[in-house]
Amino acid sequence: MDIKGKTAIVTGAASGIGRATAVALAERGAAAIALVDVNDIDLRETAGRVEAAGARATVHRLDLSDIAATEAWFAAHGDVDILHNNAGVVSGLPQFPDVDAARIRWIIDVNVTSLIAATQIAVQAMRRRGGGVIVNTVSTVALGTGFYDAMYATTKAAVMMFTRCCAPLKAECNVRVAGMLPGLVDTPILDTTGAGGKSEWMEQVLANNEACEPKDIAGGVIALIEDDGLAGGDWLAVRRLAGKIEYQWGHADTV
């Protein structure tokens, strides 16, 4: 898809990957970008950067764990060309099995239920307008055998499967759904893994792996959006190894 002149929604846009993607979309010529997050203060900073890059930005405070509110918001605002379902949360402490049931439901609703609801509504709108592109932020943990944060890994695996199952929508609705799989990325979410900061296990992950920057992942999102030759359900993993960014491409029928 040629991004120039298009409209977009980016969730989790207050910082990190969401902010970087919103700015990258503006730099590629997007006309208008709706910025969605629970943190409306940092959303305003993102909006300033988006507008400086040439796109019109609107700020929308939305708690994606409130599924009814999410459905209502997307019903009112989801008629766009591009949707980046980027918002996500980690468990923090305590971890499974000691985490309480309410927090488990919160993680599932933010990472999975709201994403499915947003995609469903956006696909219906995109079908009416002739097509569109949706990129879901997954994680490279969905390609592995496990992860310390069991609920985060489980929800990201669910998003990966959902993305792959959306592959037929390209032929049926001219809506291409793709997956962005970031490796380790230096974003504020890392500081929510522990009690008021990074957890011990996250400190060990950082000590043994190279972290990407949000703009590295945003570049991958742009690549997924712009290449209409990709099949529905395709995905792209982005990691930093030996100081270089590496891309790993995959398809709906591969893991």
TrEMBL record:
Xref: InterPro entries: NAD(P)-bd_dom_sf, SDR_fam
Single Gene Ontology MF annotation: oxidoreductase activity, acting on the CH-OH group of donors, NAD or NADP as acceptor
Gene3D superfamilies documented for this protein = NAD(P)-binding Rossmann-like Domain (3.40.50.720)
Q: Which GO terms describe its cellular component?
A: cytoplasm
Return the Pfam families for the record. Answer: adh_short (PF00106)
Task: Write out the entry's keywords from A to Z.
Answer: Oxidoreductase
Q: Does the keyword Oxidoreductase apply?
A: yes
Q: Which family does it belong to?
A: Belongs to the short-chain dehydrogenases/reductases (SDR) family.
Q: List the PANTHER family.
A: 15-HYDROXYPROSTAGLANDIN DEHYDROGENASE [NAD(+)]
- Protein name, please? 3-oxoacyl-[acyl-carrier protein] reductase
Q: Which organism is it from?
A: Sphingopyxis terrae subsp. ummariensis
The root-end lineage is: Bacteria, Pseudomonadati, Pseudomonadota, Alphaproteobacteria, Sphingomonadales
